[in-house]
Amino acid sequence: xxxxxxxxxxxxxxxxxxxxxxxxxxxxxxxxxxxxxxxxxxxxxxxxxxxxxxxxxxxxxxxxxxxxxxxxxxxxxxxxx
Length: 81
Fold this sequence. Notes:
- The chain is about 90% helix and about 0% strand.
- The chain has 2 helices and no strands.
- Helix 1 packs antiparallel against helix 2.
């Protein structure tokens, strides 16, 4: 994946996290009887989506570092030849 696509996917995950959180809070406000459960679900949604984004960002960073190491090693190898 290119850097642009990774950043776009990361942004989409962040927007989905905030959007789902807000949607569940709006539903909690409109349905008072189910409000407490929906507020708990909103919090869990935010935590789960945040963890998903964190894992995505960390794995993408590690992949980018690995590609940079391979690129540096290849350029050193060509320099020695």
